[in-house]
């Protein structure tokens, strides 16, 4: 079932139907674009990685994928996860990845996409929306700041540890 968040003659923002191969293809296209961009600095997805993403997207219980189109042309998207804040005792939407395709940047589509993610969080009665942003991504930082996002107090650092990449059950 398609959940349209907003529609006009110029654009549409909607939740992806994760059972629809076209929607899966669309978000993978957005993510691949993001990976190859200067902010992602990574090689494109392999065929195997695309298959794994498609399967995980179809099966993940806490996944929300937003897509934005302009006159039926893919503009960008966001991969979000619902989680829970023990301190706020409420649900959270975490924006894991968000990207507007290069030719549509600077036209306000990022703001539209962010606004609809925020509205979806309100609709779901979430306590907050979280995201991470690179320190050197001033364009994104300015957008997020203008929408009321700010660095947490105290400042939190994002840490990670890779665990046996390419060896889990999906790689067999």
UniProtKB/TrEMBL annotation:
Coiled coil location: none
Domain N-acetyltransferase span(s) in chain numbering: 13-172
PROSITE patterns, A to Z: GNAT
InterPro entries, per database record: Acyl_CoA_acyltransferase, Diverse_Substrate_AcTransf, GNAT_dom
Annotated keywords: Acyltransferase, Transferase
Sample GO molecular function, one term: N-acetyltransferase activity
Gene3D superfamilies: 3.40.630.30
Pfam families in the cross-refs: Acetyltransf_1
PANTHER family the record matches: DIAMINE N-ACETYLTRANSFERASE, GH14572P-RELATED
Stated name of the protein: GNAT family N-acetyltransferase
